[in-house]
Design goal:
Length: 114
């Protein structure tokens, strides 16, 4: 009998096979048997043009953005230096500081790599 891998999401040892999928009964995570656990852990963030972004990249805003709680927003062409990628569950995957606004999280579809 072969040893089944632990769940890559929660680490549970109670995984089982269903066709060509592994399933975790504790967190309901499903993953392919041929997928490596490292590929699911890496965060891939692409800009509006499809270019892959990395930590420390410089980006440019491609659309006027309203900022909640601020009378001014972020204008088209604003350059942002040294972004940090985060796993935002609501689509805000870029953590950065914008001059005049402060620390903010942005969605990847509103920026392009500089």
């Amino acid at each position: 009998m072969s040893q089944l891998p632990n769940c890559p999401k929660c680490g549970s040892e109670y995984t089982y096979e269903d066709g060509n999928l592994y399933i975790c009964p504790e967190c309901a995570n499903e993953w392919s048997q041929d997928a490596s656990s490292e590929s699911s852990d890496t965060l891939v963030v692409k800009d509006a043009n499809g270019t892959i972004l990395q930590d420390g990249d410089d980006v440019t805003v491609i659309k006027d953005l309203k900022v909640k709680g601020s009378s001014s927003g972020i204008k088209v062409g604003t350059k942002i230096k040294g972004i940090r990628l985060v796993d935002g569950n609501d689509g805000h995957n870029i953590d950065c500081k914008v001059t005049g606004v402060g620390a903010i999280k942005l969605k990847q579809e509103f920026v392009k790599k500089s």
